[in-house]
Design brief:
Elements lengths: L17 H13 L9 H10 L6 H12 L11 H15 L13 H8 L7 H10 L4 H11 L10 H12 L3 H13 L20 H13 L2 H30 L19 H8 L30 H8 L7 H15 L5 H18 L10 H10 L4 H13 L6
Length: 402
């Protein structure tokens, strides 16, 4: 199979194409005859040595190097020089050092953290967008390629306003004024006809507010969040059904009932957590060991789905994460299509998962992300979830790369 049929390998803002390389690495490993017999050690080796991690500070420096048209070799440019470029641009654009007006952090420490950080919060990208006068496409690249999160969320009034300001070269102070104006106006404000249905139609400030108010009246801004809750609930129900069947037909033991037979109604979140994390060892007190003790921790973080997190989602006290949806989908497809050809299972998983993610306003599957690349590899094996569990277990039993 050709992975390029499933993932967008379009060029990024610099010549080094991370997505293309990630797809090539997947193609190289799965194209060998030995892959169908690959064990946990082989997959761990691939994740550690072949998966490309896009480091924020490296991407930022490459971006600054290209934007500033520096002539000296890239590896000879010092952090002080990059700091001067950032400082000069922030002064010129009158951008604050933080979105928090009460911050007391020294500018030198802010610069140092950016130029050495492996990753940063989403708001840091938005701040740099103003400070470096980025067009919206460049901000999108940082969000998607580096942070591996969704692009601008046009279901969020704040991000819609930020996008509008990047598009028009406006300053942060202008964006702040627009956000204050939107928050203070009533949603019944009359901005006339015609309605603005897409952000691509927005040319003026009046059209921006027409779009914002129309979507507020129609509750569009909450629709993606609600779609994510609905998708999670449905996937969790499917997961419980599968676990119920596992308890009925195998030696799985329900941790809450202490027996080998159960039905769907008796499958609790503790049971779901135990099955999904069956490759993670426990401490003597019964808790799972810390993620940082895994050999794969630098590559795969915050991928566990815990009963506490699932409970909060069910009570609508926290939002659904991309990894929540992707992991449940992976588990469900591993069993629902366990007798299908690996290529067919892979194709159906990618298509279905991308449909769900798009419906929830989230980024589609992104093979540069090590966790997602790992799941995609597992799906092409004969027993996807068993391989996933074996790799997780192996990663906690090692102290150095294989």
């Amino acid at each position: 199979m050709d992975f390029r049929d499933y993932f967008d390998c379009s060029q990024s803002i610099h010549d080094y194409n991370y997505t293309h390389k990630a797809v090539q690495n997947l193609q190289r490993l799965t194209g060998t005859a030995e892959f169908q017999h690959a064990d946990a050690k082989t997959i761990c080796y691939h994740i550690i040595n072949q998966t490309e991690i896009v480091i924020f500070h490296d991407y930022l420096k490459r971006y600054l190097y290209q934007r500033s048209a520096l002539r000296k070799p890239f590896h000879l440019v010092s952090d002080d020089e990059y700091g001067e470029i950032i400082t000069s641009s922030f002064v010129e654009t009158q951008t604050p050092r933080s979105f928090n007006p009460n911050t007391v952090r020294r500018w030198s420490r802010v610069l140092s953290s950016w130029l050495n950080a492996k990753t940063v919060p989403r708001d840091t990208i938005f701040l740099l967008g103003f400070g470096l006068r980025m067009p919206p496409g460049d901000v999108s690249e940082f969000l998607v390629k580096v942070l591996k999160t969704e692009d601008f969320n046009f279901s969020d009034p704040r991000e819609t306003i930020l996008w509008y300001c990047y598009k028009n070269g406006f300053s942060y102070s202008k964006a702040n004024a627009l956000m204050t104006k939107f928050e203070n106006e009533t949603h019944e404000s009359d901005y006339g006809e015609p309605f603005i249905h897409s952000v691509n139609e927005i040319k003026t400030e009046e059209q921006l507010f027409r779009y914002l108010h129309r979507n507020s009246q129609n509750d569009t801004f909450n629709r993606n969040i609600q779609d994510a809750y609905s998708a999670f609930d449905k996937l969790l129900e499917q997961t419980k059904n599968i676990i119920s069947e596992l308890y009925e037909t195998s030696n799985y033991v329900n941790p809450d009932q202490n027996d080998t037979k159960t039905n769907h109604d008796r499958i609790t979140l503790t049971a779901v957590e135990m099955v999904l994390n069956s490759g993670v060892p426990h401490r003597r007190n019964g808790n799972y060991v810390a993620e940082r003790l895994s050999l794969l921790y630098p590559y795969i973080k915050n991928a566990r789905l815990t009963r506490q997190h699932m409970h909060l989602i069910q009570r609508r006290r926290c939002t659904v994460k991309r990894n929540d949806i992707i992991l449940l989908q992976f588990f469900n497809y591993s069993y629902e299509m366990q007798n299908a050809a690996p290529c067919e299972r892979f194709k159906r998983f990618v298509d279905s998962t991308n449909d769900i993610l798009k419906r929830c306003g989230m980024l589609e599957l992104y093979p540069v992300n090590p966790f997602e690349s790992f799941l995609l590899l597992c799906l092409l094996s004969d027993e996807p979830f068993d391989l996933y569990t074996d790799v997780m277990e192996y990663s906690y039993n090692q102290t150095s790369p294989a």
